[in-house]
Specification:
The protein is of the alpha+beta class. About 50% of the residues lie in helices and about 10% in strands.
Length: about 270
């Protein structure tokens, strides 16, 4: 018998090993293996997050770009420019109350949402509370030519200046979703198998055996999902693929073994 964790990887291959090798791990090793499988699923997500250079700001601030109406964009395209990271505006402030161009003349912010293009940074506030400030890097004079260009530039500068926090939030959020899906599938499937313990048709008798068996069945689907993630598939696709492959693998093993050991007698 191979030592752990090699014994686990040896048990995930084939159609009989997942069932036959369901006794080797204790509860601590089973829990550690569960966390390890979730972490494997997170590898491509972490790599994807580290390689991206922008993330939509509207994901964190609802309707953040709604003040950028067509008239505001036209005004900015004609009268605004960014030179050496400094914003300059030569026109008159637009009538749109949620847009302020230049340094504020008052500290009162009655607007629901305010985009203040100051000389050194863009300050976004809501009901007088500053939500974020963004320095002009990706935001250039050319960005003001269209709303699409401007929103992309704002999101890129915001992400680059908050990359660590946003990436950590995305990784933790993904870990929670992967973990929730994993334990719903693993615990639920184990419970369903445990209900068959009183039947004389199957070899599974304890919940630990059932959970160990389910972990063995989840190993290969998780590895395949991780490879797909490394090839660029998103999180939703990875979870879907993992679940489908797990169910198919479980069905094939049932067809091959009927969840009975070779020497098991009714």
């Amino acid at each position: 018998m191979l030592p752990y964790p090699f014994s686990y990887f040896n048990s995930i291959w084939g159609l009989r090993k997942p069932l036959s090798y369901r006794f080797g791990l204790n509860w601590f090793q089973l829990i550690f293996t569960s966390i390890f499988l979730i972490s494997l699923s997170m590898v491509p997500i972490a790599i994807q997050n580290s390689s991206q250079d922008t993330y939509p700001l509207e994901t964190f601030i609802d309707d953040v770009y709604s003040p950028l109406t067509d008239s505001v964009i036209m005004d900015l395209a004609s009268n605004a420019q960014v030179v050496d990271g400094r914003f300059a505006y030569t026109g008159s402030n637009p009538s749109q109350p949620s847009i302020q161009l230049g340094d504020p003349e008052t500290s009162t912010y009655p607007e629901e949402l305010l985009l203040n293009f100051r000389a050194d940074q863009l300050v976004i506030s809501k009901q007088g509370k500053e939500l974020t400030n963004i320095h002009y890097q990706a935001i250039t004079t050319e960005s003001f030519q269209s709303k699409e260009n401007l929103t992309k530039a704002i999101s890129k500068d915001w992400y680059q200046q908050n990359r660590v926090y946003v990436s950590l939030f995305l990784v933790l959020g993904s870990f929670f979703l992967f973990g929730l899906n994993f334990f719903i599938v693993a615990l639920g499937a184990s419970l369903l198998l445990y209900f068959t313990k009183k039947s004389r048709l199957f070899s599974l008798k304890t919940y630990k055996e059932c959970y160990h068996f389910i972990l063995n069945c989840l190993g290969l689907p998780t590895l395949i999902a991780m490879i797909l993630g490394l090839l660029g598939q998103n999180m939703t696709t990875l979870i879907t693929v993992q679940n489908i492959l797990f169910v198919l693998y479980l069905v094939i093993i049932f067809y091959k073994t009927h969840f009975r050991d070779p020497d098991y007698h009714k």
